[in-house]
Amino acid sequence: MDIGEAALVAEDRRVAALLAADTVTIGALFDDRVRYVHANGLLDTKASYLSSMARGDLTYLTIDISDRSVTEHDDLVVVVFRMRTDITYHGEPRTLDNICTTVWSGTSPRLISFQATPKLV
C-alpha cells in the first residue's frame, strides 16, 4: 500500500471513529501536534479535541464524504473532500456542508492538520 492509500484508510478510520465517538482511535490517529480548525473558526489541539469529544460537546450523527482528491508530497499526503454532516454542538442540532483538507504524515499516517471551510454554493 502506498502512502496515499494509507492516508485514505486512515481517513476512513477517522470518520468511523467520529461517528462512534471513539476517542481511543482518534487519539491514535492524531499526531500530538495536530491543529484542528473547525468550520466556525475554533482551533483545537489534540488534547482539547479529545476532551471535547469525551464531554460530548460535539457529536457526529451522520457523515457523508464525497469528491475526495489526494496529493502526495514526500512523506505528506493532502486529502481534500466535501463533508456533509449532521451533528449536535453543545446539544444543538446542526447540518453542515464543508470543504475539508486533511494533512497526513508518515507511512503509518498521523493527522497533523484538519481545516473545514463552509461550502457557500
Secondary structure tally: strands: 6
**Share in helix:** 25-40%
Q: How many helical stretches?
A: 3
Strand order of the largest sheet: 2-1-6-5-4-3
* Overall outline: globular
Q: Spans with pLDDT under 50 lasting ≥5 residues?
A: none
- What is the percentage of strand-forming residues? over 45%
Radius of gyration, whole Å:
14 Å
Which architecture would the CATH scheme give at its second level?
Answer: Roll
End-to-end C-alpha gap: 36 Å
The level 1 CATH classification is Alpha Beta
- The average pLDDT value, as a whole number, equals 95
What fold name stands as the CATH topology?
Nuclear Transport Factor 2, Chain: A
**What is the number of domains?**
1
Major β-sheet annotation: 6 strands, mixed
SSE succession: HHEEHEEEE
Instruction: Give the structural class.
Output: alpha+beta
How does this model look, in words?
The longest helix has 18 residues, at 3-20. The model has no long low-confidence stretch (mean pLDDT 95). This protein has a six-stranded mixed beta sheet with strand order 2-1-6-5-4-3. The protein has three helices and six strands; from the N terminus they run H-H-E-E-H-E-E-E-E. Helix 1 (3-20) packs antiparallel against helix 2 (23-29). The protein is of the alpha+beta class and 121 residues long. It has a single domain (3-118), classed as Nuclear Transport Factor 2, Chain: A (Roll), CATH 3.10.450. The protein has helices at 3-20, 23-29, 46-55; strands at 30-37, 43-44, 58-73, 76-89, 92-105, 110-118.
